[in-house]
């Protein structure tokens, strides 16, 4: 199981705790990667990923992530259910969708997805076109200015309840390719920092390596 989270500051001791109950969490000895792909005078964000192995199949685990010493950068406790054994032939419930987006157009979908019961859904598969950060400049009042990161962060924060409790896989779509707002077109730094699916590859960690896949 790969756990992913983001912080507005670099966390040198980024860690993971897992247990069978909220009050039995133990520090896990696993590497945590940390990347940052865009920063300016007032903004920076670091994206953390940690893959935890050796978990029992079809078992509910509780977890938290963050700093060992600074509670400001430590999450609340969440839970997830691990995948079933390969020999388990019971019903598998998966939710599949694409072209999610942000703003008023997606509020009903957002409410539906966040109301899903983690005990009834085994996997969510988001088949591309995630938060439409590349179209941020088309939203009312956002033609002028840089809103790519704000929209991406807002979408991910709004999805935290479901993404923190149900295994969530994503597939890249054309809306993850880069930023093409006027603000990016006028800035070589912004254009280069956000090109070639950089935000997508930094924010998400899919099991490509573990499954013989290509890229992310």
From TrEMBL:
EC number per UniProt: 3.1.3.2
InterPro entries: Calcineurin-like_PHP (IPR004843), Metallo-depent_PP-like (IPR029052), PAPs-like (IPR039331), PAPs_N (IPR015914), Purple_acid_Pase-like_N (IPR008963)
Signal sequence range: none
Keyword list, A-Z: Hydrolase, Signal
Keyword Hydrolase carried by entry: yes
All residue ranges annotated as the Purple acid phosphatase N-terminal domain in the record: 1-82
Family assignment from sequence similarity: Belongs to the metallophosphoesterase superfamily. Purple acid phosphatase family.
Protein name (record): Purple acid phosphatase
Organism: Phytophthora fragariae
